[in-house]
Amino acid sequence: MSRTVVFSAYGGPEVLEVVETEPDEPGPGAIRVRVRAAGVQPFDALFRGGGAHAYVPAAFPQRLGNEFAGVVDAVGEGVTGVAAGDEVVGWAMLASYAEHVVVPAGQVVAKPASMPWPEAGVLSASGQTADTALEKLRVGAGDTLLVHAAAGGVGTFAVQIARALGATVVGTASERNHAYLRDLGAIPVAYGDGLAERVRAAAPHGVDAALDAAGTVEALEASATLVADRTRTGTIAYQPAAERLGVQRLGTERSADRLARLTALYEKGDLKVRIQEAIPVEEVARAHRLIETGHTTGKLVLIF
């Protein structure tokens, strides 16, 4: 049997329950992974509460989670390049909070041997979202990038990927996270009144692109003021003001190649993964309460 997180109605974290399910068998071209760790994202809580219903309606009893790491324990017909016993990092849309997941073989890459399970479990979703966003915003060497919520899950990855590309990064965060951002290579700036002026002081030569992971009107308005080219300002958050301001809505374009680039950055030492807390899957409701505070530093991860 397999421990699996489900919910049968939209609501608060208390609607989440861990049930025993029969693991599925992988069909042709698919693999089954015994999950060791699965990341918790703000989207998971939004979806559980019904906030994404217009985009992705639930099918109750609904599973959750979009990123995982584990050990391959079965392979389907025709699978090559992946074998039982391989340690992998991957993604399974609305299915990753489970002790076993079945996914196409092309949705996993090899886990770096030096990467602990909790770090591997949080790499795929936020890492690929950050990488996609920087690609869409055309961030490269010599650019100055503004990242809002730079100490969060997506922000942490965006700062480091941009730095690896040769960009200067200014990151907004609460003051308690400023030392953390400096450690990542970013110039920290505090939230609040006068944000745009503080960013101008931190980046006197101007800001070329901006990525909003905070989802506040303040962040979007500051970005629109600071970046001349609106095609180089984007948000990953559900914020109605984005349309009014002409800001790009950014999603994730996942691929094995993109994920492999992230694991390569990790192996080179250019990408650090910050875990705020590793939480047993039986405490999934507590994990959702924490993610809903909006004040996590790095990532939360469920452990199986």
Unreliable spans are: none
CATH fold-level topology of the largest domain = Quinone Oxidoreductase, Chain A, domain 1
Task: Output mean pLDDT.
Answer: 96
Instruction: Please tally the helical runs, counting DSSP H or I stretches of 4 or more residues.
Output: 10
Encode the helix/strand succession as letters: EEEHEEEEEHHEHEHEHEHEHEHEHE
Any idea what the shape is?
Answer: globular
Structural class: alpha/beta
Largest sheet: 7 strands, mixed
Number of domains: 2
Tell me the layout of helices and strands.
Layout: E1 2-7, E2 17-21, E3 30-40, H1 42-48, E4 62-63, E5 68-75, E6 87-90, E7 100-104, E8 108-110, H2 117-121, H3 124-136, E9 144-148, H4 153-165, E10 168-172, H5 178-184, E11 187-189, H6 195-202, E12 209-212, H7 217-226, E13 233-235, H8 241-245, E14 248-249, H9 256-268, E15 275-280, H10 284-291, E16 299-303
Parallel strand pairs: 9-10, 9-12, 10-11, 12-13, 13-14, 15-16
Antiparallel strand pairs: 1-2, 1-4, 3-5, 3-7, 3-16, 5-6, 6-8
Helix pairs in contact: 3-4, 6-7
